Amino acid sequence: MLHQDWMRLALVQAEKALELGEVPIGAIIVKDRQIIASAFNEKELRQDPTAHAEVLVIQRAAEKLGSWRLSDATLYVTLEPCPMCAGAIVQARLKQLVYGAADLKGGATGSVLNVLNTTLWNHKVDVVAGILEDDCSNILKSFFKRLR
């Protein structure tokens, strides 16, 4: 499968968030060409500021694998991760991050900050940006337009 195929599956997770009134961000983790975990934002549902799609999917993948080290896995997420999520990506030792839409207000993997591209960490994450960017951006735009 191509990055676009996996991102479509992350968008399915974003749609689930949308149905629940959450900010529609979805994520999946792929290892050995299989989805090992999926998640969407649950901040409102849980009333938990850390319940971002990326954090939840990392937790689920670690639980499934019985290890916090996700070094052979790729995270697909519909929006560029924030600083908290970028830190979790480094801590999980993910091999690759693939995201859809850039977050020009709070993105921490290239737009506002670049937490993953620094010589300070002993782990490097390969980043691929802009996969299905329009689709990922449009679901967010329509959500916020409805809120207004």
TrEMBL record:
Binding site for Zn(2+): H52, C82, C85
Catalyzed chemical reaction(s): adenosine(34) in tRNA + H2O + H(+) = inosine(34) in tRNA + NH4(+)
Record GO terms (molecular function): tRNA-specific adenosine-34 deaminase activity; zinc ion binding
Cofactors named for this entry: Zn(2+)
PROSITE patterns per record: CYT_DCMP_DEAMINASES_1, CYT_DCMP_DEAMINASES_2
The EC number(s) this enzyme carries: 3.5.4.33
Active site annotation, chain numbering: E54
Annotated organism of origin: Desulfosporosinus meridiei (strain ATCC BAA-275 / DSM 13257 / KCTC 12902 / NCIMB 13706 / S10)
Pfam families on file: MafB19-deam (PF14437)
This protein's UniProt keywords: Hydrolase, Metal-binding, tRNA processing, Zinc
Domain CMP/dCMP-type deaminase: 1-112
GO biological process: tRNA wobble adenosine to inosine editing
Function: Catalyzes the deamination of adenosine to inosine at the wobble position 34 of tRNA(Arg2).
This protein's encoding gene: tadA
Signal sequence annotation: none
Keyword tRNA processing attached: yes
Oligomeric and partner information: Homodimer.
Family: Belongs to the cytidine and deoxycytidylate deaminase family. ADAT2 subfamily.
PANTHER family in UniProt: CYTOSINE DEAMINASE FAMILY MEMBER (PTHR11079), TRNA-SPECIFIC ADENOSINE DEAMINASE (PTHR11079:SF202)
InterPro entries assigned: APOBEC/CMP_deaminase_Zn-bd, CMP_dCMP_dom, Cytidine_deaminase-like, MafB19-deam, tRNA_aden_deaminase
Protein name: tRNA-specific adenosine deaminase
Superkingdom of the source species: Bacteria
Free-text remark on how the cofactor is bound: Binds 1 zinc ion per subunit.
